[in-house]
Amino acid sequence: MHGKIVQYSHTTGVGTIINASKKLFDFKIASWHDNTKIPEINLLVEFKLEDENRNVIDIRSSKYQEFGIRYFRDSESLK
Known about the structure:
Elements: E1 2-9, E2 14-18, E3 24-28, E4 44-49, E5 56-61, H1 65-77
Antiparallel strand pairs: 1-2, 1-4, 2-3, 4-5
């Protein structure tokens, strides 16, 4: 799945992702698997869920940062 980090605390290592359908998913730093970037607000990510409880088990920065930023910005203006 793809989404954007909308909340993240470096202190607690806990954050929240939103996807294009406006669903929210919480994640923990232990699920972060990217050595090139650290989690930060507005970072576009790719993630996998463990089950229907929406537990994020794998998250990394998306390769499509520029495209995604325009996509999320345009979708917000359609509200």
